[in-house]
Amino acid sequence: MTEQTILEKLKEGARRFQSEVHAGNAAEYERAATTPQQPHTLVIACADSRVDVESITSSGPGEVFITRNIGNMVPAYGEMLGGVSAVIEYAVSALKVKHIVICGHSDCGAMKALLSPDSTAAMPTVRSWLTNGQAALKVADALDTPDDKPGQRLRNLTEQNVLMQINHLKTHPSVAGALARNEISISGWVYDIGSGGVRVAEDPSRAFIPVSASTV
Ligand SMILES: [Zn+2]
């Protein structure tokens, strides 16, 4: 696909959204346009192009406040003050979200890069960002057994990374305060791109339980 073709494809997508999706849900968008947003949930997901948070959670406009980055990382408070920290503070303190989801996923390039550090040798910024997952890597390493099936190490790391980012999340003052007042809850998710399934660990549990399709 040439660059021009890609832009045309995106513009056609915007036209189709306006004429079909937006026009087809006019009342919902009218309400979204005329009332302040009140999202119930903050979702911190991976930037991977296959992780579509609204689709995975069947959410419409105004329901989920989202930030996405490589590896669904949350720097511990004070370590890398920036976009992620600001999103968390705003979502909790101003929007008063009731729940925070940290969402990892199968086949995550960031998790694979943690397992193969040489792959980011030429990308110093990515490498630096991935240090947010180093502690999770150590935990996943400790869980390794000789009987592990292929892919188990990546699966372990993906889960442990989500749990570690929950730990980091709790170092943010806005989150710590809201937790102490029982105003907020946290869960860790791993989305499986191949099956569409989601495994959820409801904090403080560290066990990932599949969300059964039949109960939805
Ligand atoms: Zn990813």
From TrEMBL:
InterPro entries referenced in this protein's UniProt entry, alphabetically: Carbonic_anhydrase (IPR001765), Carbonic_anhydrase_CS (IPR015892), Carbonic_anhydrase_sf (IPR036874)
Gene3D superfamilies linked to this entry: Carbonic anhydrase (3.40.1050.10)
Cofactor(s) listed in the protein's UniProt record: Zn(2+)
A GO MF label: zinc ion binding
Organism (species): Granulicella tundricola (strain ATCC BAA-1859 / DSM 23138 / MP5ACTX9)
Function: Reversible hydration of carbon dioxide.
Similarity annotation: Belongs to the beta-class carbonic anhydrase family.
Coiled coil feature spans: none
Enzyme Commission number, as recorded: 4.2.1.1
GO biological process: carbon utilization
Matches recorded under SUPFAM superfamilies: beta-carbonic anhydrase, cab
Note accompanying the cofactor annotation: Binds 1 zinc ion per subunit.
Keywords assigned by UniProt, alphabetized: Lyase, Metal-binding, Zinc
Pfam families the record matches: Pro_CA
Binding site for Zn(2+): 46, 48, 105, 108
Record-given protein name: Carbonic anhydrase
Catalysed conversion reaction: hydrogencarbonate + H(+) = CO2 + H2O
